[in-house]
């Protein structure tokens, strides 16, 4: 009995000694923490810079004297920017295109990625290669504009959604992920009488959460930040996006009255804003309002990036 306890204690001692961190390990770990902390500060500072300038005195911010902390703290910039004409409707348009466009892109990418793994699909290799070619060749701006106009998508909300539904890179990601899943999943479902749509929606789609979450993030960021499609295809002021208004404010910040005229606002309201705000304060404040919502997308989807989600999906 005593000998057994001695051997157990010796084994525990060997194990603790084996995994005992040396002074070099502590130095290496500390250096890593310091390096990543510096990198995090470098990444976060630009956004912090926007925030402190948007809440600082406008004359000080215009001179570029706000660097580490706010000077003359106030929130009037946000109150005045929220009152700018066209901003609420532009926010609705941006949110609508982001939610709808992301949903359709995720479903289309997942379904096409699944179908391109089906050997019985007619012309599978041809259609897959045809899709991949579009990653490398484009018709150009003018032919694409003519196509959109012919299809009736100019000055149409759907021009924000339909051209982004099928993205070759997202389809490749989904196809690669489906190919890594066990074939027994589909075989078992088909033995139970499931058709191809039931196999996708009931078997594969629930198990594709990690890659679909990744595609959702890519699509949401692209949809939210896009403004060039508004610049090219939209002249109806009711379809302006929040990012396009930011684009106008940045390029026309020296003349707020002209920006208000383009956005369909009234000059009296804009004139009162111009007396309190500077072009720099407008750029900083609107930039914060545009960037802040998309930042919250990552925490919502981060929990889906987990390895081993397929463990236990096939038993026996």
UniProtKB/TrEMBL annotation:
InterPro entries: MetI-like, MetI-like_sf. Residues 91-301 form the ABC transmembrane type-1 domain. Gene3D superfamilies: MetI-like (1.10.3720.10). SUPFAM superfamilies: MetI-like. Keywords: Cell membrane, Membrane, Transmembrane, Transmembrane helix, Transport. The chain crosses the membrane at residues 30-51, 89-114, 126-151, 157-178, 199-221, 282-301. Its main location: membrane. It comes from the Bacteria. It is a multi-pass membrane protein. It holds the Pfam family BPD_transp_1. It is found in: Cell membrane. Belongs to the binding-protein-dependent transport system permease family. PANTHER family: ABC TRANSPORTER PERMEASE PROTEIN MG189-RELATED-RELATED, POLYGALACTURONAN_RHAMNOGALACTURONAN TRANSPORT SYSTEM PERMEASE PROTEIN YTCP. This is Carbohydrate ABC transporter permease.
